[in-house]
Sequence to fold (205 residues):
Amino acid sequence: MDFSSKLLENAVNEVSRLPGIGKRTALRLVLHLLKQPSDNTKYLTNALTQLRTEVKECKKCHNISDTELCHICSNPNRKEEIVCVVEDIRDVMAIENTGQFRGLYHVLGGKISPIEGVGPQNLNIESLVNKVKSGEVKEIIFALSSTMEGDTTNFYIYKQIEKYNITTSTIARGISVGDELEYADEVTLGRSILNRIPFGDSLKQ
Ligand SMILES: [Zn+2]
Fold:
């Protein structure tokens, strides 16, 4: 691309670093911003800067939060002893949307994937095992997507916590293997949380 402006080129280069955004799309977005009132760009950059400087990770569940403890963990009406294990905040949002779950979450931050170089040590697994060890958790619900990485991660965690004799279950999804949790419809997802099946049974299938 031959730019008439170095400033334009810099902006396009930065925007095109985002996933799924090629140079052409980046140029379109930047030209769009140029046509808008300059305040709009200011709001956008302020929102992003504020996000990066002020956002926190909930010290209990590792969810993205504005406060030390997220609004779910700090809600006294939630059942602390039931913990739903998810990959990231999108899964928390999907399950919260169903309105069917009253426990807490534990956000792993990914799935075990040797191909992508993600091992158990790269995920929030130790803090989960510690919660089980300390006795504060009575039931773990696995709600990772049913991909090979999801299954591997579930099984790894299950092996770590098996000896503490707590209830382990997995959400019984009526959606096909490989579907991501965030795309499951709310009714199906809500039902699958209520009708969760013992984790041991899911291994026999
Ligand atoms: Zn939290």
User: Anything to note?
Assistant: The two ends are 54 Å apart (CA to CA). The chain is about 40% helix and 15% strand. The domain at 64-204 is CATH 3.40.1360.10 (Dna Topoisomerase Vi A Subunit; Chain: A, domain 2).
